[in-house]
């Protein structure tokens, strides 16, 4: 319905209203998030007021998550962000792509429902617990990032990455393991029990080859 109105002669007024609104909206952090997929309200999740969430009913954001300003989360294909994930500003998470469909369909693209578009890609994204995503990253459709990972600023990420990976670059690659980083804090006597299990600490599993 909105698309039909927008494409009509009245569309210019809709565009004008949206552009005016963009000038008066000030960035601030919004505390608390109602997660539509599970029906829970997570009061410790914080999302910037300038963050764009597309198709929120398919975006599963758990508690203690932080999402920085001017990020874009495209929920069309489904996004799962587990507890404690930190996503820095200007990061984009995509779950669909028209890179082939727009070429193959040309002018028919906009008038064709997404499910009927030739070459249209829709794949979900998952980010594991307490993973950190640096600023200005691009997470592409079909990506799965494990728990406790670090993704370096400006990385373009596509594929499956195991727990504790340090991921950087374009195209991204694994350059290390966060357990090796944490071994230093452990050896200095830091209390890591909020993150690692007692069994993990007892067995000193920081020694990763």
List keywords for this structure.
alpha/beta; 8-stranded mixed sheet; 5-stranded parallel sheet
C-alpha Rg, in Å? Answer: 20 Å
Report the total helices. Answer: 5
In total, the number of strands is 20
Outline the biggest β-sheet. 8 strands, mixed
Shape: globular
Q: Which strand-content bin applies to the residues?
A: 25-35%
Mean pLDDT: 90
The amount of helix comes to 10-25%
State the order of secondary-structure elements, H for helix, E for strand: HHEEEEEEEEEEHEEEEEEEEEEHH
Poorly predicted regions are none
End-to-end Cα distance: 57 Å
Structural class estimated from helices and strands: alpha/beta
Sheet with the most strands: spatial strand order = 1-2-5-8-13-16-19-20
Structure in words:
With 209 residues, this protein is α/β, with parallel strands linked by helices. The chain has helices at 2-6, 11-24, 101-105, 178-187, 198-202; strands spanning 29-35, 40-48, 52-54, 59-61, 66-67, 72-74, 79-81, 86-87, 92-93, 96-97, 121-122, 125-127, 132-133, 138-139, 144-145, 150-151, 156-157, 160-161, 165-169, 172-177. It has an 8-stranded mixed beta sheet. Strands 3-6-9-14-17 form a 5-stranded parallel beta sheet, with no helix packed on it. A hairpin with a 2-residue loop joins β19 (165-169) and β20 (172-177). The longest helix is centred in the N-terminal third of the chain and has 14 residues, at 11-24. The chain starts with a helix and ends in a 7-residue tail after the last helix.
């Amino acid at each position: 319905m909105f698309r039909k109105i927008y494409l009509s002669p009245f569309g210019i007024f809709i565009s004008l209203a949206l552009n005016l609104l963009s000038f008066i909206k000030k960035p601030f952090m919004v505390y608390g998030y109602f997660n539509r997929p599970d029906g829970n309200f997570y009061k410790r999740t914080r999302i910037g007021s300038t963050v764009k969430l597309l198709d929120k009913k398919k975006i599963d954001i758990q508690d203690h998550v932080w999402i920085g300003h001017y990020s874009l989360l495209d929920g069309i294909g489904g996004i799962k962000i587990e507890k404690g994930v930190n996503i820095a500003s200007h990061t984009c998470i995509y779950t669909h792509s028209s890179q082939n469909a727009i070429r193959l369909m040309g002018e028919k693209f906009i008038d064709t429902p997404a499910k009927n578009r030739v070459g249209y890609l829709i794949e979900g994204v998952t980010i594991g617990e307490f993973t950190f995503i640096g600023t200005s990253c691009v997470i592409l459709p079909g990506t799965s990032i494990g728990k406790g990972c670090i993704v370096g600023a400006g990385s373009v990420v596509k594929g499956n990455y195991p727990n504790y990976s340090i991921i950087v670059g374009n195209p991204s690659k694994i350059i290390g393991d966060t357990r090796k980083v944490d071994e230093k804090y452990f050896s200095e006597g830091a209390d890591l029990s909020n993150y690692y299990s007692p069994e993990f600490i007892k067995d000193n599993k920081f020694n990763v080859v």
